[in-house]
Design a protein that fits this description.
By secondary structure, this protein is an alpha/beta fold. Helices cover 40% and strands 15% of the residues. It has one domain: TIM Barrel (Alpha-Beta Barrel). The strands form three sheets. An eight-stranded parallel barrel has the order 3-4-7-8-9-10-12-13, surrounded by four helices. The relative contact order is 0.14. The protein binds flavin mononucleotide. Flavin mononucleotide binds next to strand 6, strand 11 and helix 11.
């Protein structure tokens, strides 16, 4: 089986990726999504599963988190399937969960093109998409038409023309709309491509926003009882002081988890000609920065609420580093573009090998291990 997985990875990297990388990054992304969406009614998820069969021994990576049972910890990060077109195909490639969005209440086109750049030499991307998406109604229509075959979270953002003072109303509207449909929701206040959005991470703004949202969640729960896990996604570009303030607020609300991190504005030691493009940097150069933030969060929060580690996960080693730093779950985006759809299986296989090497019988034994020595 290992030989088969290595072969499918090689086919992607030496044959398919060069063809895809000849095209504009955003155009080929849209084309692939549309093609996979059209193929879904003809059984493409079943084909994906046949091509990428699950790794044996997966029960050792099964994890329960905020009341949900994740078949494995490797998920798809927000932004890849913004409009919920291919979540079932992504689950069939072996990903343990998918996060759709970011969606905003109303559809919007985002920033001017070109707005996504490949940094080949750095195994990275820079994007300044700016929450281009079809809006909450289109996303919900798709999710209702095609029942999800696994855990599908929804990432929520505000429209660009909604001021920060009115942002809570956008998030409230979205939370109400997706209440029955999402497996979990994420309050995204960390994209660098919506002007001033990150200011909502400040102590007073965040307190006000979460207060409003948890009051809404309470009312919704009374009308339509369910426990919808509400998570927060944060930026990697927070000073120690800003992170400390943010954690003060996190302690005050029943957040189900924190996602660390979104893309960075840092530009350290990049080699690619696109390095100075405006936007958020993702992929390998983000790996250490996001893992450091994750580690600080774990130390401060002492494991509660659980953390989702995202930023530069490209293989088992980078995934295991985040688990040991304190992540219960992981997400990938840029890694998938560079490594191909076999990435979930590869990470799971390599994680199992790391658990064996360190004498852990289950993934949960390794979470936060760095902090115990
Ligand atoms: C093209 C692109 C679009 C993205 N769009 C979103 C988004 O809409 N919402 C969001 O929360 N994060 C978005 N992200 C950030 C990812 O979810 C993730 O946090 C970040 O890319 C780091 O992970 P990676 O290094 O595995 O890509 C986007 C990333 C990329 C590369």
């Amino acid at each position: 089986m290992n030989g088969y997985h290595a072969l499918t990875d090689k086919v992607y990297q030496s044959l398919i990726r060069p063809l895809l990388f000849r095209q504009d990054p955003e155009e080929i992304h849209e084309l692939t999504l549309n093609w996979l969406e059209k193929a879904e009614p003809f059984g493409s998820p079943r084909l994906c599963k046949l091509l990428y069969p699950p790794v044996p021994d997966l029960h050792r990576l099964k994890i329960e988190c905020f009341g949900l049972e994740f078949p494995n910890p490797v998920g798809i990060a927000a932004g890849l399937d913004k409009n919920a077109k291919i979540y079932n195909s992504l689950l069939s490639f072996g990903f343990g969960f998918v996060e759709c969005g970011t969606i905003t209440p109303r559809s919007q086109t985002g920033n001017e093109r070109p707005r996504v750049f490949r940094l080949l030499e750095d195994e990275a991307l820079i994007n300044r998409l700016g929450f281009n998406n079809q809006g909450q109604d289109a996303l919900l229509q798709r999710l209702h038409q095609r029942p999800k075959r696994g855990i599908v979270g929804i990432n929520l953002g505000k429209n660009r023309d909604t001021s920060n003072e009115k942002a809570a109303e956008d998030y409230q509207r979205l939370l109400t709309a997706v209440w029955h449909t999402a497996s979990y929701v994420v309050i995204n206040i960390s994209s660098p491509n919506t002007p001033n959005l990150r200011e909502l991470q400040g102590k007073t703004s965040l307190q006000r926003l979460l207060d409003y949202l948890f009051q809404t969640a309470h009312k919704l729960h009374l009308q339509h009882p369910r426990q919808l896990p509400i998570l927060l996604k944060i930026a990697p570009d927070l000073s120690d002081e800003a992170l400390h303030d943010l954690l003060d607020v996190v302690h005050q609300f029943p957040l189900a988890g924190v996602i660390a991190t979104n893309t960075t504005l840092e530009r350290n030691q990049l080699r690619s000609s696109h390095a100075q493009q405006t936007g958020g940097l993702s992929g390998r150069p983000l790996q250490n920065l996001s893992t450091q933030i994750l580690s600080k969060l774990y130390r401060e929060l002492q494991g509660e609420p659980p953390l989702i580690g995202v930023g530069g996960v490209t293989d088992g080693k980078s995934a295991y580093d985040k688990i040991k730093a304190g992540a219960t779950l992981l997400q990938v985006y840029t890694g998938l573009i560079y490594q191909g759809p076999g990435l979930a299986n590869r990470i799971c296989r390599e994680l199992l090998a790391y658990l064996d090497k360190d004498g852990y019988s289950h993934l949960s034994d390794a979470i936060g291990a760095d902090h115990r020595f």
